[in-house]
Amino acid sequence: MKNIAYLTLFALVSGCAVGPDYRQPAIDTPQAFSGLPKDAQAAVLDDAWWRAFGDPVLDAYVDEALRNNRDLAIALANVEAAAGQLTTASAALYPQLGYQLNGQRGVTSTQRLAGDSSSSDSYQFLGNASWEIDLWGGLRRQREAAKAQLAASEQARRGVLLSVTGTVVQGYLQLRGLDRQLEITRRTAQSYEETVKLFELQFRYGAVARINVEQVKSQYQQALSAIPPLEASIAQSENALSLLLGRNPGPIKRGKDIDALTLPQVPAALPSSLLTQRPDILEAERQLVAANAQIGVARAQFFPTISLTGNAGNVSLALSDLFKGGTSIWGVGAAVAGTVFSGGSTLGQVRSAEAKKRAAEQTYLKTVQQAFADVENALSQYSADGRKLASEVALTRSSKEYADLAWLQYDGGLAPYLTVLDARRQLYAAEISQAQARTSQLGDAAKLYLVFGGTWVDRAAMLNTPPPAR
Question: pLDDT band at residue 238, thresholds of 50, 70 and 90?
Fold first, then answer.
């Protein structure tokens, strides 16, 4: 017993554990992002950036999604499940206490052989304790792994918060862009319809040829045929946004027109800051920490387990005498158990854990590099779409001038109606392209906040925090 006491004392004061301690892998981090504009600001990553669009309806939708989105509810439940696993892993480090109450009536074999057939009673109450001494640190590594898994689940939830926020914003912007395209298409179709009526009237009086009437009708039908696909896309976008908000599919209330929305400030950050801001990077690192700890859990199986047990209680032939003096019983014990031969099972578990750690490390490094690429790609796309929008605005302006002049020349007999049709087709295409470019530019601005991450995710998490249970 004295030796067991010494081992117990050693286990309590020893802080070492089998298996490697975690070290962050070396990362080749760029000095800066090449596509950042000079007016970019880092401070905007701390705020609720979606409010910068200046649309209260959009703000309300983001708040609603953060409260009611189903994926967020699943992510929160996963965090709570991981917290439960950590509690379970931590409990293994402490003594386990229990109790047992037994009552028995019967005739023993000894009584029967002696010719005594009378029954006898016995009652027993025992309190018991057991403790597995974590001498090699396997249980501590198990707790370390569970703690890392909990942290990974929390980062996964932050990743869902980031994704849901971005998807709601981009979905709403896409919807407003489709609304603008539908408005342009309907206005164009109405213009053709009015021209058809005018030309049919002129044809009756011989002012225009039949070919001119059919040309206008052809353009009118083309414009009409573009409306149903847009209406279907709008309905699908409304349904998708409704699901993000935790609603059943249905119509969505609109706020400001797409041209009235404010373009948010371009965010800025150093590449090294992504390591502490992006939820996917933080999640991958926590998974790496957990995989590293599992190596220690596997290696601890090479060593014997040492357990202490004890019990104390009372025994009596009558229930009324169970807790009276002179009925107490007690016992203590110690056990050492280990494996002599397992056919390589333990070695296989260690090798498997080491391989999983290597895979987790490569996943982490890949996630970091992908994050750097995401930022560079988003900055490049934002810049390109900004230049494209400027060109589309200029094209729409010149196309409008061309269409007006073509009609004046046709009305004055200086140009055929084909010139008018060509000008109108060009104007319609330019207006649609401008609406698409405006939608893309606003969506690119939203994506910049998603690829940079930032403390705004924690602000969103506060909106998603459920009320305390009563």
Answer: very high
